[in-house]
Amino acid sequence: MTIARSSSRKAKGARAALQTGLPGQVVLVLQGGGALGAYQVGVYEALHDAGIEPDWVIGTSIGAINAALIAGNPREQRIGRMNAFWNHVEQPACGAGPLDWLGMGNWLATMTTVMRGIPAFFEPNLAALRGTRASVGIESAAYYSTEPLRRTLGELVDFGALQDGPTRLTVGAVNARTGAMRYFDNRKETLCADHVMASGALPPAFPAVRIDGEPYWDGGLYSNTPIEAVLDDRPRRDSLIFAVNVWHQSAPEPESIWQVMGRQKDIQFASRADSHIARQKQIHRLRHVIRELTQLLPAGKQADPAVTELSSWGCGTTMHVAHLLAPRLEGEDHTKDIDFTPAGIKARRDAGYADTRRMVERSPWRAPTDPIEGVVEHI
Fold first, then answer.
1. What's the whole-number mean pLDDT along residues 40-67?
2. pLDDT digit string (tens) for 339-363?
3. What does the pLDDT average to over 216-234?
4. Pairing, β 123-124 against β 144-145
5. Average confidence (pLDDT) over 284-312
6. Read out DSSP for 88-105?
7. In angstroms, rounded to a whole number, what is the distance separating the alpha carbons of residues 314 and 289?
8. With 90 as the cut, is the pLDDT of residue 121 above it?
9. For 242-292, what is each residue's pLDDT tens digit?
10. At CB < 8 A and 24+ separation, what contacts does 2-9 make?
């Protein structure tokens, strides 16, 4: 499913014009969400067409895979490699028939994915046939094997070039033994397919991936929106953060068990994003207050070592957070994250492209902001 767009052939001069005036480093933050990650492809494509390339990509689960495809390839190859991955994971939908009349048009495709897996992504794990109580070790205790994903990543991501490339990559995973979240960063360590796979190792479907002797699971178990990685980064830098969300925190109350199952997933995987940002707004505002107070002190007092130590907690950086939220598709349910049908992927990808293009055209980060505010949100 390669999507050609006339906008991708815009003049380089127009792209450069849009790139200028950005308020700091460009950061792309990508949630986990399985097939919902197709929305992220559209987001990146729209940024690419606008001449805006991320300096830093942070991802969890499918977001980590998309992030690796971006950071692990030259700019001119990124769209092609993302197309290749999503073409690999597409699953044909069933044709029109009785299932469509019953409102279950994608049911057969979903069941095929559950029973057979996706050849380029995951496959049934034979160890699971021994039963859920069999002691097979944490690296085999799952319904599927993700070895196909290892091969796919090896074909589509240049991990050697990633280490010295221009784009920073961070992927989040949670230690299955300690329960602690860890962010693996190519500016601090050498990343390979294991780190990306660990970030997407959602139990009990996928097995833990061992790194440095420790088993890791999907970072979404702890924080599916890894925006804190950039907001807590040191040294702090002015940033334009595109926070790409594919799960909905709010929705009408469900009225059936089927709807409850979908709502439960949304709440589970969308949670923490708003609370993280609210906390960071408070912290950054306090840092700006400290900076302002320090500037009010006489020069001699500012030079006092004790004052210097206290004033180091202040800063003047501004974080612009541009929120992008994937829309709900008509008829979607709790299986939407395994809807790898061509229609589902295309609809979400197109939505990501359109939403991002509108955000870039508005460029709300260009408007004046209150200098006391360190985190400014744009919706």
1. 97
2. 999 999 999 999 999 999 999 999 9
3. 88
4. antiparallel
5. 90
6. HH--PPP-SSHHHHTT-T
7. 7
8. yes
9. 999 998 888 889 999 989 999 998 888 886 667 778 888 898 899 999 989
10. 2/83, 2/87, 3/83, 3/346, 3/349, 3/350, 5/45, 5/49, 5/353, 7/49, 7/357, 8/45, 8/48, 8/49, 8/79
Q: Tokens for 127?
A: 């160890």
Of 343, 374, 264, 361, which is closest to residue 38 (Cα–Cα)? Answer: 343
What SS3 state is found at 223?
A: coil
Q: In the Cβ-directed half-sphere of 75, how many Cα atoms lie within 13 Å?
A: 11
Q: Residue 20: which pLDDT band, with cuts at 50, 70 and 90?
A: low
Angle at 217 between CA 213 and CA 218, to 5 degrees: 145
Q: At what angle do helices 75-89 and 62-71 cross, to 10 degrees?
A: 150
Q: In terms of Cα–Cα distance, which of 322, 318, 329, 328 is closest to 357?
A: 322
**Beta-strand relationship, 168-175 and 123-124:** unpaired
Strand partners, 144: 124
State how far the alpha carbon of 369 is from the alpha carbons of 20, 152, 244, 320, 328, in Å: 18, 44, 22, 10, 32
Instruction: Please tell me the distance from the alpha carbon of residue 325 to that of residue 313, in angstroms, as a whole number.
Output: 33
| 152's tokens | 């796919």
Tell whether the model's pLDDT for residue 136 goes beyond 90: yes
Which of 203-217, 330-344, 357-371 has the lowest average pLDDT?
330-344
Answer whether residue 98 shows pLDDT above 80: no
Residue type, 201: A
**Spatial distance between the Cα atoms of 341 and 95, rounded to a whole number of angstroms:** 12
Q: What share of the chain is helix, strand, coil (3-state, %, to 5)?
A: 45, 15, 40
| Contacts (Cβ under 8 Å, ≥6 apart) of 138 | 176, 207, 208, 215
